[in-house]
Design a protein that fits this description.
Elements (H helix, E strand, L loop, with lengths): L2 H23 L7 E5 L6 H13 L7 E5 L6 H8 L7 E5 L2 H4 L15 E9 L3 E5 L7 H10 L5 E4 L5 H13 L4 E4 L3 H9 L6 E3 L1 H9 L3 E6 L28 E5 L4 H15 L2 H9 L3 E6 H16 L6
Parallel strand pairs: 1-2, 1-3, 6-7
Antiparallel strand pairs: 3-10, 4-10, 4-11, 5-8, 5-9
């Protein structure tokens, strides 16, 4: 055998060993993976978790278990994951009030700015400023003008003190230099009922909560608190278009504890991103009226922190 052939053979052997070593060191799960949901079974966050888990399951060699730990507007689930080992076996559905809002209203046992590792964003849930169809304001500018002329007279509902809905209205009041009365309710459905009953003047809501009333002509939307107009409701202007730099919405996705190894993050990201892009998941999302939006792990965390900081400029922790 020639010297050149020996050298080529040795090089090929070394390359094979290097590839084999890399493959051997790549992370794969060896025990069940938990996705913690901070709300009860059957709700929007739970549906997202179960759809993405069931779609990704065929590509992951261990069970994916959805655990519901409801309470404190999702903060219990977030705390559970913050305290978990950063080994890839525990994540939660992040991106709601527990991530971007509550920590600005009261002290929490975690800090979204440093206690979590983003995996990916899966959906976005826009928030519309909603009024009754027969409300006297045709535009947001009309409502703001009346609020300025009558401080404290107009009222708004929210899905609870410290929720994202509450924070959107606090930021709007600050930027518009108006004062409105806050009436908190235990969730979005009671807030919708209060709006329809004439007990409040305006209420922030996602489309899932008000779509039936909108289709029936019982409510209107003055503005949406997103960075762009909704493709489903393109005639509704953004708050930014109205002159108020507000971008706060539910951006649901997966996050784990801080300090997760990069190969673990990469494995989970790639598996769940492939699931998100599958026809199966797109069909399930359409059936559940979910608007998909992808962000990678770092961009996802940056978006949550930006919303948290935007609210923090107006709200001081108690």
């Amino acid at each position: 055998m020639s010297t050149l052939r020996v050298l080529f053979s040795a090089a090929a052997l070394i390359a094979t060993l290097i590839v084999g070593a890399a493959d051997a060191s790549a992370w794969e799960p060896k025990q069940p993976i938990s996705i913690v949901v901070g709300f009860s079974p059957g709700g929007g966050t739970d549906i997202i978790a179960r759809h993405i888990a069931s779609t990704a399951q065929p590509t992951i060699p261990v069970p994916i278990v959805v655990l519901n730990k409801a309470g404190a507007s999702g903060a219990i689930a977030a705390e559970t994951v913050k305290n978990a080992k950063p080994d890839g076996y525990t994540m939660f559905v992040a991106g709601g009030s527990e991530s971007v809002s509550i920590g600005n209203h009261r002290k929490l046992p975690y800090d979204v700015r440093k206690d979590f590792t983003g995996i990916l964003q899966i959906t976005r849930q826009r928030v519309f400023l909603t009024v009754k169809a027969d409300a006297r304001w045709k535009t947001l500018a009309d409502m703001v003008a009346e609020a300025k002329a009558n401080p404290g007279k107009l009222s708004f509902a929210s899905a609870g003190a410290g929720s994202s809905y509450h924070s959107i209205m606090l930021v709007l009041q600050k930027l518009a230099a108006v004062e409105m009365k806050h009436l908190p309710y235990q969730g979005g459905a009671p807030a919708v009922a209060a709006l329809l009953g004439g007990h409040v003047d305006v209420s922030p809501h996602n489309p899932e909560e008000t779509q039936a009333m909108y289709d029936a002509g019982r409510v209107r939307y003055l503005a949406v608190a997103s960075d762009t107009r909704s493709p489903i409701l393109p005639d509704v202007p953004t708050l930014r278009e109205a002159g108020y730099d507000i971008y706060i919405e539910n951006i649901k996705g997966l996050a784990g504890p801080a300090g997760m190894p990069q190969d673990v993050v990469a494995y989970l990201h790639d598996k769940f991103k492939a699931a998100m892009e599958s026809d199966t998941f797109k069909r399930l999302a359409a059936q559940a009226n979910l608007e998909l939006q992808y962000r990678g792990g770092k961009d996802y965390m940056d978006a949550m922190v930006a919303m948290f900081n935007q609210i923090g400029k107006v709200v001081s922790p108690q």
